Amino acid sequence: MTSPSEQTLLITGANGFLAGHVIKEALEQGYDIRGTVRSPESAKKIRHLFAEYAERFSVFVIRDLTQRDNYENAFVGVSKPITGVISIAAPFTLKVEDNCRQLLDPAIQGAIAMLEAVNLYGPSVQRVVTTSSFTAIIDLSKGFRPGHVYSEEDWNPMTYAEAANADAVSAYCASKALAEKAIWDWMEQVPPTDFAGFVDVRVAAKAHIEAYKRPEAGGHRFLVASPFSYQAAVDALREDIPELVNRIPEGTKGMDISDTVYSVSGKKAEKILEIQYMPLRESLRDSFLELLEAERKLV
């Protein structure tokens, strides 16, 4: 990892009490900071607070944190790449008329919107840190629980349906747990694309033979691959093989990651070796149908 002086951290909820201290600590360690707040008034106050760091501290206004695309411009206009996100912003109010509309949905949707924004607009981001709360751990139904020691293994067990009709305090506590669980679920469903290229084994086999046969292939180096993403893969499999729908996570259907990760070009191999790449959908369908047939024979 590069030194702090070469990185920018994006910190949401920058005008909050905790966030202010996080920003101070990060600036003192040498990081540049891009903070987000929900109003121009808050932006003005936080800029004044960190005026001595004006060259390394900037603020971006995002009024609605539940929409992924609202974050797009927060990732641009910095002199050093945004390598980390510290997500502290979250809805908090106890003057509630509608638990779902004012607490539960904003908390859950806001948590996921941030992750989707990082996935789409933050190609340099190496880690996301999210702030939760002890309320995501405590089981209010158990009271004071003398003798019990809470740890990271505990979860607030209140469901969305229960929280929707609960008192405001209980609903707020549940919103923190539900938002955090949504984050963990998202991480499981959307693994990082470690390698963004693929080739069907049949095409790879043909490429080997053609590289041997063709005089013009001598002395060359070939990248035999087409672009790949996990989201495109699961979209294709869920559409083409219905029996896999309950066995493959949905992710964010249709999400395009082309602007967030490198691509590959196998055109040289296409031209010199005269191979034709097989579409990802076709390659996956053939492979998984074979696997399912093998599975049926084993059962």
TrEMBL record:
- What would be an example GO MF term here? oxidoreductase activity, acting on the CH-OH group of donors, NAD or NADP as acceptor
Which UniProt key words apply to this protein? Answer: Oxidoreductase
What residues does the NAD-dependent epimerase/dehydratase domain cover? 10-189
Offer one Pfam family short name for this entry.
Answer: Epimerase
Identify the InterPro entries for this entry: Epimerase_deHydtase (IPR001509), NAD(P)-bd_dom_sf (IPR036291), NAD(P)_dehydrat-like (IPR050425)
What domain of life?
Eukaryota
Return the PANTHER family for the record.
Answer: NAD DEPENDENT EPIMERASE/DEHYDRATASE, STEROL-4-ALPHA-CARBOXYLATE 3-DEHYDROGENASE, DECARBOXYLATING
What the record says about family reads: Belongs to the NAD(P)-dependent epimerase/dehydratase family. Dihydroflavonol-4-reductase subfamily.
Output this protein's name: NAD-dependent epimerase/dehydratase domain-containing protein
Tell me which species this is from: Trichoderma harzianum CBS 226.95
